[in-house]
Structures are given as structure tokens and as C-alpha cells.
Amino acid sequence: LANTAGTKLKDRLNNQMILSQFYLAHGLDAEARGVLNIMASEDANVINDPYFNALSGVTSYYLGRFTEAEKDLTANGLSNDAHAKLWLGAVKARRNAWKDALVAFDSGLAVMGKYSTEISAEMRILAGTAALAMDEKDRAQRELNNVKIDALAPALASRGRLLQASLLDARGKNDEALDAYDRVIATHYGPS
Fold first, then answer.
1. Among 155, 156, 182, which residue's Cα sits nearest to residue 169?
2. SS3 state at 63
3. Measuring CA to CA, how many Å separate 47 from each of 21, 36, 86?
4. Measured in Å, how far apart are the chain's first and last C-alpha atoms?
5. Is residue 127 packed enough to be buried (19+ CB in 10 Å), middle (13-18) or exposed (0-12)?
6. pTM for this one?
7. Where are the strands (E) in 30-150, listed by range?
């Protein structure tokens, strides 16, 4: 942060963008938001930068500010950006806008391989949940097949197991679904 003080505005904004990205990559979402807010207060034109908007959208997503995230991810310059579409799909899924989520995921899944295993799994679980909500069971299963649930952090693994149970339930496999729901409950880690 000391590196950003007292430099020319363009250089400072570049350093702040890097710092914000660093914070976001290390789970310091509020800190990333703080840096982005400072950037916007120092240069009103920064909100016209697609990279700034994408970074801001992802930060808002992780902070649970889905309305702000959607606004940022649909800003000018991002309409054809596959990464922005992927995150927009996640936002739409979190807001239970299932059909819109699937449309956005369709435009963004091509870049899935550029993300970490955890982020890819989160996106696939959300896409699978949206697909199941739209009664696209085969698509939900395909998404789930691409997730190694046992290797995930507890919160995300719980959401994956809930999707597994819900998919079994939707397919009328009642006994298997009940067993799967019991396994979700037994972890004592409720999906969010």
C-alpha cells in the first residue's frame, strides 16, 4: 500500500488494481472492496474500465452484494466477456434467476479451466443447481460429474452433496435421495 502513496494517478491506479486483485485472490474481499472504492473516489473514469468493473463484480459477489455484482458484470465492455458471463451466471444463480443463470453460464463455461479447482467447482455446482431448478436433470448431472466433492472445503462440499441428493430426489430415487440428504445433515455443515 505504501507503494501507491504519492505516485502519479495512472501509476497509483495500476498499483491499486494489482493490490485489489491480490486481496481478492487471498480471500480478503472487504479489503479488495476498500481499494476499489478508493480508486473510484480518486478517478471517476475508472468505472468505465472493463477490468475494474469485472474485479468489482467478483468482489461484490463474494461479499454477497449480488445487485452490485450484476451491475458491474453487465457494464460496458463486458457484454462479450466470457469471464464476466461466468460470474454473472453465479450471481444469477445466487438470486434464483435460474434461466438467466443458465444463459450466462453457457456463455462463460468455456473459460472454466482458467480458474482454481474450488472456483470451478463452485460454478459447476451453481450451474447444476440452476439446471435442476429448470428441470434439466441431465445437464445438472453433467455439471456434478465434473466436481470432486470429497476434495472440496466443507461449505462447498455440503452444497455439492445437497445437489446430489436433490438430483436423486428429482429422478424419483427416493431411498438413495434420503440417504444422500442424511449424509448432508450428518456433516453438521449446512449448505448456504
1. 182
2. coil
3. 16, 10, 20
4. 34
5. buried
6. 0.89
7. none
Q: How far apart are CA 59 and CA 137, in angstroms?
A: 31
Task: Please give the Cα distance from 22 to 146 (Å, whole number).
Answer: 28
Pair 108, 83: CB distance under 8 Å: yes
- Model confidence pLDDT, tens digit, residues 136-161: 999 999 999 999 999 999 989 999 99
Compute the distance between CA of residue 35 and CA of residue 112 in angstroms, rounded to an integer. Answer: 27
Q: Tell me the pLDDT tens digit for each residue of 17-72.
A: 999 999 999 999 999 999 999 999 999 899 999 999 999 999 999 999 999 999 99
114 DSSP 8-state letter: G
Rounded CA-CA distance 186/19 in Å is 40
Cell of 170: 428429482
Quickly count: other Cβ atoms within 10 Å of residue 1's Cβ.
10
**In 117-173, beta strands by DSSP E:** none
What is the amino acid identity at position 72? D
Count CA atoms closer than 13 A to 30's CA, side-chain side: 0
